[in-house]
Amino acid sequence: MDTPLTRLVGIRHPIVQTGMGWVAGPRLVSAAANAGALGILASATMTPGRLRDAIREVRSRTDAPFGVNLRADTGDAADRVEIMLAEGVRVASFALAPSAGLIARLKDAGVVVIPSVGARRHAEKVAAWGADAVIVQGGEGGGHTGEVATSVLLPQVVDAVDIPVVAAGGFFDGRGLVAALAYGAAGVAMGTRFLLTSDSTVPDAVKARYLAATVRDVTVTRAVDGLPHRMLRTDLVTALEESGRIRALAHALRKAAGFRRLSGLSWRAMVRDGLAMKHGKELSWSQVLLAANTPMLLRSAMVDGRTDLGVMASGQVAGVIDDLPSCAELVERIAKEAEEVLAQLAGLRGVR
Question: Keywords for this entry (predicted)?
Answer without folding.
Answer: Dioxygenase, Flavoprotein, FMN, Oxidoreductase
